[in-house]
Amino acid sequence: VNADEIMDEDEDSMRHLGFLPLSSIYHELDIHQFIINRQRSLAMDYSLNDVMQLLVYTRVLVPGSKSASFQQKDNIARPFNCDWYDVYRALDYFAAFREGLLLHLHEQVRINYNRNTDVVFYDVTNYYFEIDQEDEFRRKGFCKHNTRNPLVQMGLLLDADAIPITYRLFEGNTHDSQTMMPLLQETRKEYGLGRIITVADKGLNSGDNVAFLMAKGDGFIFSQKIRGAAKDFQEYVFDPADYVEKKGIVKQADEWSEKDDNQDAPAFRMKSRPYPQEFWVTHADDVKRKIPLNVKQIVCYNELYARRQKHKRAEVLEKAQKIIANPKRYDKKDAKGALRYVQNIEYDLETGECISTKRIPYLDLDKVLEDEKYDGYYSIITSEIDMPDHEVVKAYHGLWEIERSFRITKSDLESRPVFLTLAQRIEAHFLTCFISLLLLRLLCKQLQGKYGPEQVIQSLRKYQACFVKDNVFKVTYYDQIIKDIGDALNLTLDRRFLKTGEIKQLVADSKRRN
Description:
Helix content is 41%, strand content 19%. The protein has 18 helices and 17 strands.
């Protein structure tokens, strides 16, 4: 090596190798063959399969816009037969065969991974767009981030092992509860699913959804609100009689780091009862009427959950006290959340600034005590009256995996913001995000659940090689996760130095069925 060599302008000697494990799963699912078969009848001089791989691999390794993904083409250690304008053209084709590809993916997962659909998890999230005006697809609706931007809604369905089955996009003003029936109806028919038990949060707990599932002979496990529920149900919840302590049911998401070293194991108590609960159901004449349906109500008390709620409330109350001591220091936006516990305070509707009045702000202790009453409690209703309570609760706790999938898609895969306007290209964008998530989940399954998708993403992004000289590259990162991936997929990922021909051989190996 000549120590006096000068670098060229815009030189980038790093090459991503983290696509190799993703390529292995991609080709195991025969995605390449599906796309190549669809392209045979089309006249084009670029590869749809290469565009799909480029968008899927960069979504995991270096997420960004479609233009940014193309700019990464030369930094990935394999060639891609496409130009920048081909990427956008390909999106139209991806949208056109989206349904067929999703069904193909389901069949491949069923064959290769023994997919379990006895229990499925369903939830809805939304994605906002950096635009002001609505169109027929991107509509304004409820958003947890309180943005006023137009949205699209996504309903996502996972199997019992948290492997994605399918998804659907809905207009942004579609209510969560109205998304489940269309997706399940299409999926059961097209995917040939048997009887399924759908697990969902309280946003999907509507009389129409309950009646729909039971009429189809399917089951459900839904969260049910306690606050604001019927008086007799609240009395049942807070009556200490019949609660039984259980162990081994606390979900991972409830683990709390601020535990005392010498305390006993946190309590988890539950009880249940069969109950003819009344639901508002839309009848054939489009009128809602109350009908009783036999369900099982399960009530749980989780001490870890109670401590976490108390801890969070203490932070809010501390802020509320600061607002009371100095009201003008906080405008309505800054005071949000803590205002729940502050009385006698007013804000200007236009500016959001605090208005000076003669009334003295004070802490609403009655509201604090009322909220404390619900700490640690939550309830579940299910059609599965004969299923043991602990199995129902464990199934419900698995719902956190779909929330995790949304978080991974939004944060780690950076699926938003979306810089696309046409509806079919927005559909294609989320298709590539879905495939990226699917590959990650299946890679984690290959690793026997030893690592989470977030950990795998970080290792794949660091697994790169740097050009040294004369056709020689030096691999710059290697860890236990990469080692385990190599062992699981039969890929040689532990070489310190690689020649160009050896990288090509690794690419070929990643396309080989194990």
